[in-house]
């Protein structure tokens, strides 16, 4: 039986996190009533002229430098002509002949080790509008709010061989762009969209097969399923000695099936020509040097540093660096409390628990790091119990309250009155004669039960170690 190899390249469209659109001053905010973030420029009205947003160029340069790309020192815009209801000008301003970045790479981790995925180019362009299909009225409506939102399109070489490699590449790309702050890369909001170019060939062959392009992929799971589905479809065609058509296909994730949309266009079909309204952009060495000097520490650099500097495991470092924002909060907390390991435990436990419980994006977590550091120090000093520390942190997390004042105000400090503690211990022992007998008989595990009972009676305002000592004292005397 023939063995086949899958060959995959990606075209990834990423919405840039600028406040305004690429060629006008309209808002790029997600949502909004239809056609309220528009003006004559992004609505394609005759006589309107585009003006390039400088921030778009800087974001594209930052992404290109992080992906080890070469930079064209003189970059130009072109018109890509196509007629579609969501494209108000009947052309898209893009870059074909001289894209801003080219010939880069990103390194991914695979089951077989590290692998470099080459990047053919990155280019700037404007997004189109959005069609809204109203099945009830049997019509389609157009929302131009997204029209003119700045994009970079990142085109890889066909270097990937499996869905696993594709997801690893997309994850690496997403982390990189999020850390740079150039995009939030939210697939569910369409700010990161991937088109998959896939072909199959007999194993060992150097000749590429006929490729198809799959669109409508808005999650990593959908991308994985689409790749496996299209791979099987093409192999079945080849096994039946039928040709694979070069075409664009749309993936239906509910039905787990793709269907043909149109034959795959080549560049000549779009009739590209230089945009006459936009002059070339000169990228100086000083500009590149300035962008490079502002590049942040990326996740690939941060993870090994956390392991070496903070003595964290690879797993812990991986979780803590999943978000640049949370990693920043963690580092500030670790510095303030002078105990990275304890800070890490709080982030891996309570911070992530509350973030998930409240349904927050990492960037929405906004407590002051010095507040958590003060709470950790209070716990270390024996001023508050672990149980009450967690309750106080919930208030810090959700309301950003000052923890020490809250502890004082609500009487949550550990009670240092030995008489009150002894009374609570004797009450717990008297209320549980069976376990008390087991404890006197030498059953050590019962101590945990009684510590819990005493902590309840003290409303968490006791030191568990002190409770244990008092229990041991009274049991010994019994």
Q: How would you describe this structure to a colleague?
A:
It is a single chain. The protein is built from 15 helices and 16 strands. The chain has 478 residues and is α+β, with helices and mostly antiparallel strands. α5 packs across α6, α9 runs antiparallel to α10 (386-399) and α13 (433-440) packs across α14. The radius of gyration is 30 Å and the shape is elongated. It folds into three domains: 4-287, no CATH class; 297-409, no CATH class; 418-477, Arc Repressor Mutant, subunit A, CATH 1.10.10.410. It is 40% helix and 20% strand.
Q: Could you name the ranges where pLDDT drops below 50 across 5 or more consecutive residues?
A: none
Share of helix, binned = 40-55%
Per DSSP E runs of 2 or more residues, the count of β-strands stands at 16
Widest sheet: strand ordering: 2-6-7-10-1-11-12-13-14
Oligomer designation: single chain
Approximate shape: elongated
Strand-residue proportion:
15-25%
Task: Supply the helix-strand structural class.
Answer: alpha+beta
How many separate domains make up the residues? 3
- Summarize the biggest pleated sheet: 9 strands, mixed
What is the count of helical runs?
A: 15
Question: How far from one another are the termini?
Answer: 80 Å
* Mean pLDDT over all positions: 90
Radius of gyration: 30 Å
